[in-house]
Structure formats: C-alpha cells, structure tokens
Design a protein that fits this description.
Layout lengths: L3 H8 L6 H6 L3 E6 H6 L2 E6 L2 E7 L5 E5 L13 E3 L2 E3 L6 E2 L5 E3 L17 E2 L1 E4 L2 E5 L12 H4 L4 E9 L3 H9 L4 H15 L10 H14 L4 E8 L2 E8 L7 H4 L2 E5 L3 E3 L8 E11 L2 E10 L15 E3 L14 H10 L17 H18 L36 H4 L26 H20 L3
Parallel strand pairs: 12-19
Antiparallel strand pairs: 1-11, 2-3, 3-4, 4-9, 5-6, 6-7, 7-8, 10-11, 12-18, 13-14, 14-15, 15-16, 16-17, 17-18
The structure holds FE2/S2 (inorganic) cluster and fe (ii) ion (FE2).
The site of FE2/S2 (inorganic) cluster (FES) has 9 residues, from loops.
Length: 460
C-alpha cells in the first residue's frame, strides 16, 4: 500500500513532476520506423508532451513541438521539404534543430524568423524504432540493448496503446506469480466459454494448471527476491524442494532493465526472444510494445529485413468483448482493468508481491537521485560501455538455466511450431500471432524442427 502522495510521486510523468524529471533522463521509443515510411510526418505524444516527428526530404529526422509558433496550427499536417518541415498554413519552415528557416509571407529583408524558434528534441533510429530524448543537454548515448542492435535475427514489433498508467504495466514485469492464473486458469476459462478448450496436456494453459495443482498438493511455496545488478534486477525464484544453488535463485530470470524494459530470458532464449516495453505517453496512456527477435539457424536463409515490420494488437474483438485467448491480451486487460492509475492506497500486498515492492523501491531511489542533482542508473555516456549492454547482465549470456528448470509453463516454447490436439498452433496463444510475418515465422519454426531432427539422425 502507498499513500496518495507516494502514488503520485511514482506515477506522474509530466514536465516538472518528480517521475517526469526522472523519465527525462532516458531515451524513449516514440514511433516505429515502418510507419514513418508510410507517412514521413506523424503526431506523437511522449511524457505528456505533444510533438511532431518528421523526416525531411534529405533524410533528416526531426522532433518538434506540435504547434506552429505563428498562429498555432498543428505541424502534424505540415509538409516535409528538403531541409525541414513546412507549416501548411503560411509556410513557415523549421529544421530539426527547431530553427525557423523561412517565413515566406514576411518582407524579404525581415529578420523576424531569426527571433523565432520552436522546441526541438534529439531523435535517433535504432532497431526499427525512432527514439527521442527530452531531457537536459547533453543527451546521453542511446542505450544499445542487445535485441535492438544484434546483427542477426528476424524482428517484429507488435504494440497497443493502453488507457492506463505506465507503472501498473511495469509492475507486471516484476510479478512472476500472475502467470498461473492470468495465463493458465483465465486462459482455460476463456477457451471453455468459446468452446475451444482442449485436453492437450502440453497446451500452455493446461500444462500451467497441472503444474500448479501438483505444487498445491505438495504444499509448495515459491519465494522471490530481487537480484540487483547495475541495470536493474533479475528475479530470483525458488520453490519448495529446489536447492538454493539453483540458478533461478542465484542468478535470477527475466532481467528488468530500468526504467521499463523487460528482457525475456535467460531461460527462454532459444529461437524466440523478446523485449516488452511500457512507454509512458502521459499519466494515463501507455504505449506497450513487444519486440520480438527470432534467431533461426543460419542454414535456413532467413530473409533480410529492409525495415522491422510493425502491427497493432487488439484489446477487443469485433464484438467489443476483450480478447482473452492470447497471453499479451490477458495481461493488457488486467492492467487496463486496474484503472487509469491504480489507487495504491487501497491495495493489499502479500509476500508474493515482493518483487513488485522491489521495483517501486528502485523507482523511488532513482527519482530521489535526480531530485538531488545526480544521474540515475542506465544513463550511458561512454561509447565502449554502451556496446551490447544486456549481455553484461548475469544470466543473459546464453548460460542460463535450462528450460525445463522452470517447468512446463515455459517448456512449451520447445513445441512452438507444433499444433496441439485442437489444431491450435502454439504461436497463436501469444502476441506472436499478430506479427506481420507470422506465416513466415511458423514456416521457419517448422524448418528449424526438421533441421534439428536431421541433425539428431546423423550418427556421430
Ligand atoms: S500557423 Fe504556421 S505558418 Fe502560420
Ligand atoms: Fe503476463
């Protein structure tokens, strides 16, 4: 439980708020590059600020305040020119640095334009996303987290803009326990109601609940602890009967990279890896993104990607009802249904919320650091240090615990490409089903399996 003041302190992201000042020390993804190719001018909103992103005809990216300082129309309907963005109304031209280059309706010898400037922020491209920095100069380096920069992998971005605060999305990253009920029991119930529940024991929902029933029957208790590192923390988890030398307890799983990036793994880094990011658009809006990177074997000749494809995933079906038959959809509904901003004065946290509390504590510490004039974690200014950052997190080097160490609820990934008894492809039980290249991914999983079988058949 938090006081009202504490809740405000942690959740608000507007200019001048404690949380907003912390967030202004970081680069944020603001738009997919694929969409900017469709239209080189886009209205974006980030940290409660309305902005316009553009790519001019020379290829320069710019991010400027939405309102033209002349008579305040929106530059989102502006025209990209050779060296900037022209306002549609009277033709004032602004470059990516916010300088006013032309005021074509003013007298030719006017110097008025030299006294007009528009707010402009640094932008960079990385991994198929456009990133922006809204904080004090000098801007730090854009962090090169592994999946955004690694040279191999088939990437896909799926996202949804949710009407709720970023922190409740982020708290879900710490909440390992929820998977049993939200992605197990609710999944079963949703499929039961639509007549699609199968008895396939390997299906995620059934495997999860079978394991849970066994754990309850033997009176098992799960312990959690944060294992802090210089980027955030990994989540230590130990169940009754497991040895305290278990890697899930000593190294932890699924690193949280502060402030809001979740790296799936290390127990899950076979072909499919992903990041989840909950980007604060404003106090009550979060752009939630799942960033997939599928590393298929080299022999499969995975097609080169000119741009990372992007798609929005639905919260509701055509009938307006929540879509509860895929994992990310279940998560999104839970976050949304907590309310616009969770009223944390009313909650009742238990022992199983240890990692949620750990994240709040870390967030408060980092906000406090900025208030006291310091630099928070994960602000990088050294180019060498900024190479392949995530690989420096313990357990993210591929030497993590085996899949089976975490039980069937995760081991199902090994069967990703196989249909279940109900004809249901495992790829369809999560947001992967909305990947623009879904059919290609399914085909590649099939070919990867054939390759694995062929390798296994070769006598050694
Ligand atoms: S309102 Fe933009 S040029 Fe006049
Ligand atoms: Fe979840």
């Amino acid at each position: 439980m938090l006081t009202r003041e504490e809740n405000e302190y942690l959740t608000r992201v507007g200019p001048g708020t404690p949380g907003g000042e912390l967030m202004r020390r970081y680069w944020h993804p603001v738009y997919p590059e694929a969409k900017l190719r469709d239209n080189p001018v886009a209205k974006v909103r980030i940290l409660c600020e309305d902005l316009v992103l553009f790519r001019d005809r020379s290829g320069n990216l710019g991010l400027v305040a939405e309102r033209c300082p002349h008579r305040m129309t929106s530059l989102a309907v502006g025209i990209p020119e050779a060296d900037g963005l022209r306002c549609c109304y009277h033709g004032w031209l602004f470059n990516a640095q916010g300088a006013c280059l032309e005021q074509p309706l003013e007298p030719p010898d006017s110097t008025f334009k030299d006294r007009v400037k528009i707010k402009a922020y640094p932008v960079e491209e990385m991994g198929g996303l456009i990133w922006a920095y809204l904080g004090p100069a000098p801007a730090p380096l854009l962090p090169r987290w592994d999946l955004f920069v690694k040279p191999t992998g088939l990437r896909q971005i799926v996202s949804h803009t949710l009407p709720c605060n970023w922190l409740q999305v982020m708290e879900n990253r710490s909440d390992l326990g929820h998977a049993v009920y939200l992605h197990g029991r609710l999944f079963q119930y949703a499929l039961e109601r639509s007549g699609r529940l199968t008895d396939d024991p390997e299906a995620r929902y059934n495997a999860t609940m079978t394991l849970q029933a066994k754990d309850i029957a033997r009176g098992a208790e799960t312990r959690y602890r944060p294992i802090h590192n210089r980027f955030g923390f990994t989540k230590g988890r130990l169940m009754t009967g497991q040895d305290e030398t278990h890697r899930a307890w000593t190294i932890g799983i699924n690193p949280i990279l502060f402030p809001y990036l979740l790296a799936q793994g290390p127990g899950d880094i076979g072909i499919r890896r992903s990041y989840q990011l909950g980007v604060p658009i404003d106090d009550t809006t979060t752009w939630h993104m799942q960033y997939f990177c599928y590393d298929f074997p080299d022999e499969l000749d995975v097609p080169e990607q000119d741009v990372v494809p992007y798609a929005d995933v639905p919260l509701r079906g055509p009938d307006g009802a929540y879509l509860l038959d895929y994992v990310l959809g279940q998560d999104m509904v839970a976050w949304y249904q907590q309310g616009e901003i969770v009223d944390r004065t009313q909650e009742h946290l238990g022992v199983s919320d240890t990692l949620v509390i750990a994240y709040r504590k870390l967030l408060k510490e980092q906000i406090d650091i900025v208030r006291e004039g310091g630099e928070p974690m994960n602000v990088f200014r050294d180019v060498t240090e900024n190479e392949s950052l995530e690989l420096q997190v313990a357990g993210s080097d591929g030497a993590g615990p085996s899949l089976s160490a975490f039980g069937a609820s995760i081991d199902y990934r090994g069967n990703f490409h196989k249909p279940s008894q109900g004809g249901w492809l495992y790829i369809d039980d999560d947001a992967d089903r909305y990947c623009p290249d879904r059919d290609l991914i399914v085909e590649l999983f099939g070919r990867a399996a054939t390759l694995t079988d062929a390798r296994a058949a070769v006598p050694t």
